[in-house]
Amino acid sequence: MHGTETRGRPRNPLATDRIMAAALDEYARHGWSGFSMRGVAQAAGVGKSSLYLRWSSKEQLLVDSVVAGAAHLADQPDSGSLYDDVIAWATDLFEYFLDPAGWTAMRITVDAVAGTAILDDIRQRVTQPLIETSTTIFRRALRRGEIDTEVSALDVAECLFGAVLMHVMNLTPNARRTAKADAYLHVRPFVDIILAGLGARPPGPA
């Protein structure tokens, strides 16, 4: 449900999706200081009134857009194999951070740390579910006995999260354009390193 409820003609869901996509792109480009309802409306090709029919403020528009952009990450991989789950999750994160939704999440985090207090709640709503999903994957592996030592699932999850994020940040513009097609090849090296450090091994011939 969006931030403002109004009666009248039903809203066009395609227009709503277009507005939220424009909001993500605008924030990824300009950050909080340059983010405005007017700018989003222009980028989406709609009148500013169309935004206010759906959202009461730019804060609510940003929240809904970022949460919707990460909604597909709510489905946790659970194949019964730590290696397969981590590869699948790392690939999902990698592709997410290549998109405007992921870049917006990163920029919100930076802006929040820099002192924009209003963004801290948005940051937590985006990053906490991602960290929790990563942590759940490693906790399941501990219960199944796939990890040799009792490690902190949260610490390992943050290592994976940080590795994916840093790798995306280090990509050149040319590499970014083809990265999604080769996502598995991008994430496998650091997944192998992290899991080897835990005593887990990738599947292979006996």
TrEMBL record:
SUPFAM superfamilies: Homeodomain-like, Tetracyclin repressor-like, C-terminal domain. Gene3D superfamilies: Tetracycline Repressor, domain 2. It comes from the Bacteria. Keywords: DNA-binding, Transcription, Transcription regulation. One of its GO terms (molecular function) is DNA-binding transcription factor activity. This is Uncharacterized protein. It comes from Mycolicibacterium duvalii.
